[in-house]
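Justification of resources, computational component.

The compute hours requested in this renewal are based largely on the per-chain cost of generating structure records like the one below. Each record pairs the submitted sequence with a full structure-token output. That output is archived, and it is also reused by downstream analysis tasks.
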Amino acid sequence: MIELRLYRYFITLAETLHFGRAAAIHGIAQPPFSQQIQKLERELGTPLLRRNNRHVELTAAGQVFLIEARSTLAAAERAERAVRLAGEGRTGRIAIGMISSASYEDMISEIVRRMGQRFPGVDIALLEMTTPRQLQALKSGEVQIGFVRPPIFEAVFATRSVRREPLLLALPVSHPLAQEEVIALHRLARDPWVMMPSDMGLGFYEQVIGVCQNAGFTPEAHQVATQIHTMISLVAAGLGVTLVPASVSSLRRAGVVYRPLKDRPEPVETIAVWMPSRSSPLLENLLEIVSEVAAETENAEIHSGAALATAK
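The structure output for this chain reads:
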């Protein structure tokens, strides 16, 4: 294999057609420079230059080699740049999993927006998945980070809280309580409920059950759906009521109203989850943005809460 240094020497000589000037450009004396060019010709097995005391010109082989040498150096430089960018987490592909309700949070879109803005060479894929499916995808490498509801019990995962938001009651517009501003949850004890499957909602399912039981009843699931938009469609059809994270209220569906709960249950939490054993510069760059956006969201919620308390 010919050293890239010899390609550079030859290109400079071909462009200057002067051994002394070419050697000076590379910061070496002319005799060792000439020796390197002779070494290159020996390795190629053919003369690249015709020279005498007053003139240097390329042979036909030298003209061909100049084209190929420039192409080889350009390819080497592209490879070096690609490796550097990958090592800095500035290029490549990252897949992000998210539960369906997280798709309504501005926070997720803001994280993706900043990632694309700061690292335009990164290809970002957003995949909607249930929590169990995301955990499987993280283990297989199909996704590199997920946004789910806690808890996560397996020690192979690292987590970071990114948002806490209140639960809202989703009611059909025809419901007798739909005109009330704030609703006590126990008044829905006899209603049919739209629920997630117990084996797919994980933390969120358990939280909804717990909130209802604290209000004195266990909800009776008349309809079951795996996706939040399907649940809202079932509510709009008058087939039941349900609890949803507040961000879902941005889904303006005809036939549905969202109301706060008088009970004020614990907020529902969204967490980022990833596998430290699969860390990469690209993932670290994304996690930095996740922490940044989460901190801004938390500060905004604190200020909003303080303003509300002052107003009261």
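The longest helix spans residues 281-311. The two ends are 78 Å apart (CA to CA).
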